[in-house]
Amino acid sequence: MTDMPVYMHFIYAALSTVGFSVFFNAPVTSLIPAGITGGVGWAIYFYLMTTTSNSILSNFVAALVVSLFSEILARKLKHPAILFVIPGIIPLVPGLGMYNTMLFLVQKNYDMAISTGADVLFVGGSIALGVLVITSLARTISIFKIKKKLNSQ
User: Fold this and answer.
1) How confident is the model at residue 56, as a pLDDT?
2) Is residue 1 predicted with pLDDT exceeding 70?
3) Cα–Cα distance between 81 and 71 in angstroms, integer?
4) Whole-prediction pTM value?
5) Rounded to 5 degrees, what angle do the CA atoms 72, 52, 16 make?
6) Residue partners of 52: CB distance under 8 A and separation at least 6
7) What is the number of other CB atoms lying within 10 angstroms of the CB of residue 120?
8) What SS3 class is residue 91?
9) In the predicted structure, residue 37 carries a pLDDT above the cut 90
């Protein structure tokens, strides 16, 4: 990793998240919250990666936090959670790993391609699982609230 301070990582990740939000035609009112979500997710990933050196765990926890922030912001700002989740996880996507996997395949270095490719798949799976856990939990809680409301009437 780099020797930049965490707050600089936060700022750059937030700016890239805002950029992707604009690219996805998100409403103007959701740009700053989406940027904060992406910045916090990347800062958590960076901190965990420097302390544990485990990319799968770091991405999983960061995706959990991004998804949790997205669900909270969706309720507060009355926007769909996907407006915050998709741009928020963009900084976590292992683009360099995908590039290196393809590079090793082209160079016929199959051992490194398999190793790097497997790591990329596990990281991608951990990001997807982190989002899935929080989204499923939020929907389950929502369903229970609706049932409780219907039963009390």
Assistant:
1) 95
2) no
3) 5
4) 0.90
5) 45
6) 58
7) 20
8) helix
9) yes
